[in-house]
Structure formats: structure tokens, C-alpha cells
């Protein structure tokens, strides 16, 4: 049977072990607190950086207003011999379908189509004649007998300054796809054809039907059967 002294030593040893365990636990808790504080500071810094970055992003309306053709307004005025325009269609906010663009350009004249690619190429067409009503179904049609029709390129693969391409004949001009066409949006006779996905292309026959173009690749750097992606289409009505 242990003596009183041995019992006290045993109790003291147990207390020391408990104290050691408590100190170890406190050390672990302290390390976790420090880690959490560091993590929280890192998160706060990341949130702060993201907030600063977001404040530098222009509002959506501003992004809509930033159209790449605007710096070339003087050139477009010269091409059309007109002074003012109204943007009646923007694929970013109005929808990128043949139906949406047909709905706003039919029964109008002096309509300009401006196409922007994801590689920064900007080109388009101008129709002086009144554009007929679109077809609900089918393949669509070409607008005919438009002596004022032309194509242009504002920023292209090898175009150093804006160029205008007049039609050699007035038989066909703007291509109006039917409202239910899900593959193509708008086009021009033997010129450009805007696809709804990654299927837009420049016709290799363009130099045969238009003045002022010797190399069909000067617009986007390629021609059919190679295709490219269109990022935006706008329709302007000039007066």
C-alpha cells in the first residue's frame, strides 16, 4: 500500500501531465488562430484587389456604346455622302439572329451593316435601295437593282486605311436570310456572309464582282472555305 508521500507524488505527476497537455492544446489553438488570421488577411486582400479591378470595368451600357466603327465616322460619311446615322440594331443587346436584324432593317433604305470579328477586323456593306420584307421561311433572297450598294473595310488584315468596294453590276446586293434561318444572319452578294456561329466567310469570288479589291484576303486574312467568328453586327440608317 503506497504511502501518503507516494500518493502526493503520483497526483503531482498527473497534474504536470495535464498541464503539459493543456499547454500543447493552447499552442495548437494559437497556431490555428494565427493561421486563420493570415488566411483572413489574404482573403481580405484578394477581395480588395477584385473590388479595385471591378471598379475599373466600364458599365454594361458603356461597353455597348463603344463601337469600333465610330473612329471611322468621317470615312463612312465620305463613302455614303451622308452626314448622320442612327444605330437601329446591335447584336450584343438585340440578339444575333436573322429574324432580329431583318425586323429592323426591312422597309428602310440607306442601311449600313457593320461587322466586327473576334480578331479585330471591321467591314460591312451599304444599301441605298429600300430593303424588302424578309421571308418567314426558306433560303431568303438578294436585294436587287441597287446602284448605290457597296462594301467597305475599316480595319482589316492588310488594309492600311478604310477602303470602299463598289459593285461592278447592280443585279444583286444585300443578302436577306429568312427569319427562321438558324445558320446565317446577313450577307452580301459574293462578298461577306455572317454566320450565327463560327461559320462566317468571305467569298473567293469577291474580286470578280467588286472594284478596288485585288486580294480577297485583305479583309480578314482568309476566304472560303476558311471561316471565322463574328463578335458583333450593327445596323445603321444614314440620312
Q: N- to C-terminal separation?
A: 115 Å
- Helix percent reads 25-40%
Low-confidence stretches are none
Sheet with most strands = 6 strands, antiparallel
**Shape call:** rod-shaped
Order of helices and strands: HHHEHHEEEEEEEEEHE
What is the total domain count? 2
Keyphrases for this structure?
239 residues; alpha+beta; six-stranded antiparallel sheet; five-stranded antiparallel sheet; 34% helix
Summarize the helices and strands and which ones pair or pack:
Layout: H1 4-55, H2 60-65, H3 73-80, E1 85-90, H4 91-94, H5 98-105, E2 111-117, E3 122-127, E4 141-144, E5 150-155, E6 163-166, E7 172-176, E8 184-188, E9 192-195, E10 201-202, H6 206-209, E11 230-238
Tell me about this structure.
The chain starts with a helix and ends with a strand. Strands 1-11-2-3-5-6 form a six-stranded antiparallel beta sheet. It has a five-stranded antiparallel beta sheet with strand order 4-7-8-9-10. It has 239 residues and is of the alpha+beta class. The mean pLDDT is 86. The relative contact order is 0.15. Helix content is 34%, strand content 24%. The protein is rod-shaped, with a radius of gyration of 34 Å.
Amino acid at each position: 500500500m503506497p504511502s501518503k508521500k507516494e500518493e502526493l507524488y503520483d497526483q503531482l505527476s498527473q497534474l504536470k501531465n495535464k498541464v503539459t497537455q493543456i499547454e500543447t492544446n493552447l499552442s495548437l489553438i494559437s497556431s490555428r488562430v494565427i493561421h486563420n488570421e493570415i488566411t483572413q488577411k489574404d482573403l481580405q486582400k484578394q477581395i480588395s484587389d477584385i473590388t479595385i479591378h471591378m471598379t475599373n470595368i466600364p458599365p454594361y451600357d458603356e461597353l455597348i456604346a463603344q463601337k469600333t466603327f465610330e473612329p471611322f465616322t468621317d470615312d463612312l460619311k465620305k463613302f455614303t455622302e451622308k452626314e448622320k446615322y442612327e444605330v437601329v440594331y446591335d447584336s450584343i443587346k438585340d440578339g444575333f439572329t436573322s429574324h432580329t436584324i431583318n425586323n429592323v432593317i426591312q422597309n428602310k433604305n440607306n442601311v449600313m451593316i457593320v461587322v466586327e470579328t473576334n480578331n479585330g477586323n471591321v467591314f460591312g456593306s451599304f444599301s441605298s435601295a429600300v430593303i424588302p420584307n424578309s421571308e418567314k421561311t426558306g433560303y431568303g433572297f438578294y436585294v436587287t437593282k441597287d446602284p448605290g450598294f457597296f462594301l467597305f473595310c475599316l480595319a482589316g488584315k492588310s488594309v492600311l486605311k478604310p477602303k470602299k468596294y463598289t459593285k461592278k453590276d447592280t443585279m444583286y446586293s444585300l443578302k436577306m436570310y429568312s427569319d427562321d434561318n438558324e445558320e446565317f444572319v446577313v450577307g452580301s452578294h459574293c462578298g461577306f456572309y455572317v454566320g450565327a456561329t463560327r461559320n462566317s466567310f468571305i467569298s473567293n469570288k469577291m474580286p470578280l464582282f467588286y472594284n478596288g479589291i485585288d486580294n480577297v484576303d485583305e479583309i480578314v486574312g482568309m476566304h472560303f472555305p476558311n471561316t471565322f467568328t463574328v463578335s458583333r453586327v450593327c445596323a445603321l440608317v444614314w440620312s
